[in-house]
Amino acid sequence: EVQLVESGGGLVQPGGSLRLSCAASGFTFSTYWMTWVRQAPGKGLEWVANINQGGSEKYYVDSVKGRFTISRDDTKNSLSLQMNSLRADDTAVYYCARGTNYYEAWGLGTLVTVSS
Amino acid sequence: DIVMTQSPDSLAVSLGERATINCKSSQSVLSSSDKKNYLGWYQQKPGQPPKLLMSWASTRGSGVPDRFSGSGSGTDFTLTISNLQAEDVAVYYCHQYYHIPRTFGQGTKMEI
């Protein structure tokens, strides 16, 4: 069974940092692009970033470029999102998802709240 | 960026009836090379992550009932839900994966 489990969310002050992780199981992690999608409270879905197999290609939505870094560790079947210089509008549930086109598998998400 | 616009924003349909959700992209998401529409549909129920309903505009996801169908090409797409069931109450999103950044529609809230 394919499973994606996010962790690392929490309350952080504006300007602070947080590192999200996504533990993958039930499939050959190293052969898939992986993606982060976020959803602000009561709002729609926003694609954040994705990373290819091996980690040589990374793409970001403009609003997080220079602040967020996506990475992966194929030896640990793990996806990460390092978030720096956090702002109030980064408050959201962050989902990891499998794939670069459509997303057949999603985690349950981890909530990031940026507030003083 | 490709802007995805869904209509309507919300929809109230009776059990057993048919519901139609439209999605329009600001640019074509039809690839000239492989003739595929890079368009997906997701269903999201409260407190749950999204679930893939359709890929390539009209290919149902794993386990998705055939009451759900997708159509359209280029810039105009439709998700149709026939014989609406109570469990279909959700928010539905279209999604283009033709260009980076990937973008989603604003969502359509389905109510019974």
Please provide a written account of the structure.
The complex is a heterodimer of chains A (116) and B (112). In chain A, strands 2, 4, 5, 6, 9, 10 and 11 form a seven-stranded mixed sheet that branches. With 116 residues, chain A is mainly beta. Chain A starts with a strand and ends with a strand. Chain A contains no helices and eleven strands. In chain A, a hairpin with a 5-residue loop joins strand 4 and strand 5. Chain B is mostly beta strands and 112 residues long. In chain B, 0% of the residues lie in helices and 46% in strands. Chain B has no helices and eleven strands. In chain B, strands 2, 4, 5, 6, 9, 10 and 11 form a seven-stranded mixed sheet that branches. In chain B, strands 1-3-8-7 form a four-stranded antiparallel sheet, with no helix packed on it. Chain B is globular and about 40 Å long. The model of chain B has no long low-confidence stretch (mean pLDDT 96). The chains are: A mainly beta (116), B mainly beta (112).
Could you provide a short overview of the structure?
The complex is a heterodimer of chains A (116) and B (112). Chain A is mainly β and 116 residues long.
- List segments of chain B where confidence is low: pLDDT < 50 over at least 5 consecutive residues: none
Shape of chain B: globular
What percent of the residues of chain A sit in helical stretches (DSSP H or I)?
under 10%
Report the end-to-end length of chain B measured between terminal Cα atoms. 34 Å
Average pLDDT over all residues of chain A: 97
Counting helices, strands and paired strands, the structural category of chain B is mainly beta
Q: What sequence of helices (H) and strands (E) makes up the elements of chain A?
A: EEEEEEEEEEE
Characterize the biggest β-sheet of chain B.
Answer: 7 strands, mixed
Query: Which sequence of SSEs, written as H and E, runs from N to C of chain B?
Result: EEEEEEEEEEE
Poorly predicted regions of chain A: none
Terminal CA distance of chain A reads: 40 Å
